[in-house]
Design brief:
15 strands, Methyltransferase domain-containing protein, alpha/beta, 27% helix, Vcp-like ATPase, Chain A, domain 2, 4-stranded antiparallel sheet, 34% strand, 7-stranded mixed sheet, Rossmann fold
Amino acid sequence: MAYLFVGEGREYLLEPGATLETDLGILEVPENVEAGDTVETHLGTAFVARELRGPDLFHHFERTGAPMMPRDIGLVMGHTGVKQGDRVLDAGTGTGVLAASLGRAGADVVTYEQDPEFAEVARENMALGSVANAVEVRTGDVTEHLDELGGEFDLLTLDTEDAPAVVAHASELLSPGGFLAVYSPFVEATSEVVKTAREAGLDGVESLETIQREMDVGDRGTRPSTAGVGHTGYLTFARNPTL
């Protein structure tokens, strides 16, 4: 199990027994280290071991592309109410931050990634995030497996270019009252998802643009930051009818 070692405004992801050389000294991690332990470099700089939490996954997972931002993940979880024991079908695994976050919430996740190398990295990330037992990463195109997947998923999450092709089958994949959440960086794709969701007979179809502004707080005053990315993408939500 890897830990974050935090000190002097820095953090390093290290496993028990690892050695790290920095300008603050050599950090040798004991084999029996536990969360909360303090480990010093040979120069006396202290680092505290901390367990990985959900937000840490975004920063420390190995990336195979642009991962979904925490703000988007929060909207998915908040709008769908995903909980322990829910069954989730996810497609477009990528780095796997969303799948891991859903797994940490207690859901059982099956996620599809077309690129074999990306899928292998995602499996390693699931192990790092301690959700390998909750998240099954499958290599392949989810559209080629819809017939065998059956229904009764509580949540369907998509971050793929061919999302509309899956949305068209959402009513067959989802349990009554189950939720759909689709992420897209482009408004044209979002429009197609909305159209398909309505044609599929889903309820409560809505799309949200996710925008977040960081605030700069200083001695002279407080104002929105002029740096950073405000817009990330669009999220479309819908729900399978209960009858």
